Fold this sequence. Notes:
Strands 4-3-2-1-5 form a five-stranded antiparallel sheet. The chain has helices at 9-23, 25-65, 78-101, 110-117, 187-198, and strands spanning 131-135, 141-151, 156-164, 173-175, 183-184. It is of the alpha+beta class. Helix content is 50%, strand content 15%. The longest helix is centred in the N-terminal third of the chain and has 41 residues, at 25-65. It contains five helices and five strands.
Amino acid sequence: MLKPSDLTKAELLQVVEILAVAAGGYYLDRALGRIETQRNDAHYEKSRKLIDEERNHYAAYFELLKPYEGRPLMDVPMDVVKKAQAEWDKARAAGKEWDRLNGFCGKKRKSDAEADKAERLLVLPCKVGDTLYEVTGRKTISEYRVKAIRVELFCVFIEWEIIEGFVCKSPAGINAGEIGKTVFLTREEAEKALKTKEG
């Protein structure tokens, strides 16, 4: 005698159809509802684990760097920086997996597309934690880390802290409009601008 595990997918579907006709649609609906509930429960559990994993790795990241709060990056031991970066990467990976699992991966949400079309979507030039490079009046390049980005009434203001070099424009930060003029997203762009300035 055949067992359900011996059947092909097409044969199993045929058995389901025969049973549905014999028992009525009510039992088929109940069986399908139960399977859907099991799938939803498994999806919820996986999503919940990813959220917890992301939160735990971010917490570990901040805990590692907490003793060095307010101090220059150069004062943080390299092994601590590497451990913190590993925690940050694990948190980001868990977040990206959650996005993929829940359909937010690699495509604009409908609301974003509508906002973009209506010119209400603001694309920021950089993100918190990025490094920016400023061409100074002394013909050198200073490095800054982005601390915060504020959307204000008339501009987008980027708060930063000096990593290397000296402050040329402002110790607090810059208007985002300076990016591409005196402040750059990569060292290569800054070096090219510096050569142009010298030439």
